[in-house]
Each structure stands twice: as structure tokens, then as C-alpha cells.
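Researcher: Re-running this chain for the archive, since the previous output was lost when a drive failed. Same request as before.
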Amino acid sequence: MKKYVSIVAFSWLACTAAFAQSEGGYWNPQDPTTKIEQKYVGFDCVNLLDSTSVTVQPTGSGSFRVYRKFKVQTPRGAVNNRIIKYDYDPLTAHAEFRYVTIYRANGDVLNLDVTQACDYAAPARAIYWGARQIMMEVGRLEPGDVVEYEIAKKGFTYALLTAAESSDEGRFIPPMRGHFYDIVPFWSEFPTVRKVYKVSIPMEKDSQFQFYQGECASSVRYEEGRKVYTFAMDDMMPYQREPNSVDFYDSAPKLMMSSTPKWIDKSLWFNKVNEDYGSFQPIPEAEKKVAELIKGKTGEMEKIAVLTHWVADNIRYSGISMGKGEGFTLHNLKMNYTDRCGVCKDIAGTLVAFLRIAGFEAYPAMTMAGSRVESIPADHFNHCVAVVKPSNGPFPSVVSCGVVPNSNRTTCRVFPKDPISA
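Model: Regenerated C-alpha cells:
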């Protein structure tokens, strides 16, 4: 009996040594940097735990608990982490620090006053949509110090068009009401001992997911009348970018989740949003300009080209926020023609409107420049193109518009066939 008790006691002590529960209720892995020094030599800091927990409401709005605990290893790491920053979009989300704790190498523990956190406009270039950052000054750190913090965020990821809501809470509800999606990179600039992503959704909801380019521990559990998806990866080492390599989203581990069944559902919704909003509604000034541009042009590609080049030359790449609805909502033609500026979606929307005025069947299409779009219908988009259907071909022509690097000029390129099918 004494032997049995000793074994149980030893097992309990071993588990206690391996994991320690933090202030925020997270189970933290043991700090490996104290025993495996060589593995982490040369890195400025090590992430001991990177954890995100999301509770999804029936409306699709999510409450996020973003937790991170990292250890500083070098003076450069101390300087780089003297301020903690977190980006959010105030049109669709709210974020705030819950707590920040510093565990000094000498054993001292310092709980910072999170009411002193700052909320500033985020740095912006070419796209001015009002993004913001919350910042917490940690102050002077020394190698060996450990910093732990938690951020609470409420809302969703992209600013999509939404119906007017009577309360401020309405801005946290995604426009595709009831749906939730997320794209989670499982890579980091620094070694990460453990990364966890957890999503709790109502029992009546379904969600599909896929983990790409790697392996993780995953599970689905039923807890308190909800479905809980958990994904975890241990001992993540940084990925090194190589010359001419593909985007990390195409080579490093990532998780994609979506409650939307198929891409066609998202596509039909996106089309309806912009048609109902009147993004392509013609205006007299534009009709006059289109007639002037295509005068004397006989071939379809000749007309498409002249309209494309006018849009590229006259709509500057400079994103001005329309306020509520910014994101997947294309600015209407009147706004674009008056302001003569916008991001890719607004440039593409202007061209779609011009093409329709000229008698073509044309639509906007969201895509991902620089990496592939997966079969899971999560909104992995960063670009919008115009698609026009010629009268004599089964494949549409695709017109892609974007900003010229290191300038504010716009360039557009016409692909005579569907580049995927060609």
C-alpha cells in the first residue's frame, strides 16, 4: 500500500512539474529553455505558449481570448518586446488587454496596470480604413524575463456589408449572419513550445476544417451543450524563407475552418451583397465617358482593353473608407468616379460598371494574390478582379488590377482566357 501511494505521489509531482497553471487558467508547458539550451541559442525569444480560444454565438460573432507567454533570451529580444501591440478593426471588433504579468529572472513578479494601455491609429500606407492598435508598454526587460498576457477580442475578422443594427453590438455580427470562419497560421517567427487553437460553437451548428502542410493533434468534444474543436502543435520551430519561395500559406502548417458549406454559397452571397448595394449602378457621367472611349472600336477585346486602360490610368490606388460596410462591399460607381481612387475591389468594381455600360456581362471576383485559395470556403482573400464574358468563348476574360510597387499608380492586366483553365 505504501508503495502504491508513493507511485501516485510521484506521478502527481511529475505532472505538476511538467505543467503550471497561469493566472488566466491556461495550462502551460514547462519552460524547456532551462534544460535544452543549445536548441534555442541564437533566438531572441521563445514562445512558451500561444493559445487562442473562441466562443462563437448563434449570430456568428466570436469572443476571443488571445493568450501568449514568452521568454526573452537576448538584449535585442528585450528591446523588440518592450511594447506589446495588437491590431484590430474598430468597425467590426473590439479588443482590450485583460492582464499583463512580468516574471523577472530574479524571481520578482510584476502585474502591470492594463488601464494604462493605449489605443492608436495603426500605421497605414495606401489603404486608410481606420485600423487601430492597442499597445501596452512593458518597459525594460532583461534576458531570462518571462512575459504573460491575455487580450479579449469580440467581433469577426473582415469588415463586410451588414444591415443596420439598433445597438452597438450589431457591428460584431458578421454580415453572412450565423456563419463563422477562421484562418490560423501554425508557424511563428520564433520557436514555440506549444500552440493551441480552440473553438466552441453552438451544438446545432456545423463546421468543416482542414489542417494543411503538417500535422497537429485535433479533437472534437461535446461540452456543456456545445461542440468544441481543439487543435494543438508542440515544438514549432521557425520556418526560414528562401529566395523565390512560395508564400508561407502555401508551405507552412495552417488551419482553415468554415461553417459555410461550399464556395458557391459564399459566391452567391457576395454577388447579392454588391448587386443589392448598387455597386455597379450606372451614372450619366460614366455612360458618357464609356461611349467616348469605345467610339470607333469594333472588336470585343479592343473595347475591353480601352476601358481597362482608362480605369488603370485614372483610378489611383488609395483606399478611403466608406465607413460601415467597408471590406467586401465594392464602392459604388458614383463614389469611385468622383473620388478617382480606391483599392483593388473598387478599381475592379469601376471596370465592371464600365463593361456593363458597354454591353458586356461582367462581375467582380475575389481571389488571393500570392497564394492559393483552398477548397475550404474560408475568406482567404486579398485581391479582387473583374471577370468579363466574351460573346464567342466559353471562358471569361479576367482583368486583374493592382498597385504598382513603390508607387500609387495602378496597373491592370487582361487575361484572354481563364488562367486556371488555359
